[in-house]
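Supplementary Data S3. Sequence and structure tokens for construct A.
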Amino acid sequence: AQLLRLTIGKLSDIGITVVAVTSDTTAQSVQMAKALGIHIDEDNMKYTFQHPSSSSQQIAYFFDSCHLVRLIRNAFQSFQSIQFSNGTAHWQHLVELVALEEQELSNMERIPRKLANLKNHVLKVNSAAQLFTESVASALECLLSLSLPPFQNCIGTIHFVRLINNLFDIFNSRNYYGKGLKGPLMLATFNKINQVLTEAKTIFVTLSDTSNNQIIKGKRKLGFLGFLLNAES
């Protein structure tokens, strides 16, 4: 934290203004954020810290979205089922979806082969990002419409996958000319982006495991709280 403050101060000396900091989600980074004064708590969220060279300026803090998606993917696999206000998301639906990947399914986007052995393999960051995609949500919707037994109650899973995908698109956007949620935050896109962030905040505070334990108060909360911190930032 002290090295970061020193670096920001040196940048300020040569005319570069730092407005935000992004870090990964390692234990060291979380401790650094706390040392800077960031509070990662749904009841007391503090998402900015004091600029070391300007008493009137605050610096926003972000966690990298790829790392947050990986944490959520691991939490999802661990819990197997996640309950929330809009339904229940089941990990088994994704396992069943991957099982169909080797078949030629008409009128459906193919699921990436990197998701093979999903049930027993801890995926890398890029594969975790592939898991929460619009194509996966659309594939589940298609299977639901076909009334296939393994997917008859997958509405909650679709909603959950699509929400995480939308959050990833918002915080992973890097192109000024990006379309939809992949576009930059500006007046023309604010309402659409804010709607997703508000939905995430509403849903994440209701997440629970099958024993009705609130997830954002448990050991696997960082992926969800990280997105809420990003939303505030």
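Construct B, processed identically:
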Amino acid sequence: FLDAYDCIRRDSYPDVLRSLALAARSLPEPQPRELLQQLCAQVQGGAQPNLAQLLAVRSLFSGSLLALNRLRVDHVRALSQVLFLTPHLPAFLLRHRLRSHVLEIRHLDRALQHLGLGQLSEEELRAACYLRGLNSTHLGQAECRAWLEQWLRLSCELQASEASLLAHSMVLLSLNYSQP
């Protein structure tokens, strides 16, 4: 069932990337805009972004056109599907639910960082990855741990106002990660 649900989630990944690339073109500042466009092109081309690339564009995701409360409705719907949230709600409810779920994951990340990944069983490790967008059913425990460590470094670095970047990272970090 996890594979079937992941297929549903992955169906929305191209929409999220397209919406992100489209929104990037509308950004006023040339240097961060170009970095984000390169990041989108890289992921669309099959590459895996690194933490430094994501952190380099973090300022774009709070207060600009890429903040959760400013995204286009179709963009919010696609992100909602990544989190298995129903996309069939009014825009203000979609945004509220998306933000709430992303911030809940961020709180869980902080607790997990404090606890330490070594405390997780293999099943808990896989569930933590799956919750954050990575289908871990076909990955080894070391791959899951490496991905989750990268995710936690990003999540614990971001502020609540950068929740949009965390939501997008569910796609950016998992789309090309060791596909089965």
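The two ends are 15 Å apart (CA to CA). The chain has nine helices and no strands.
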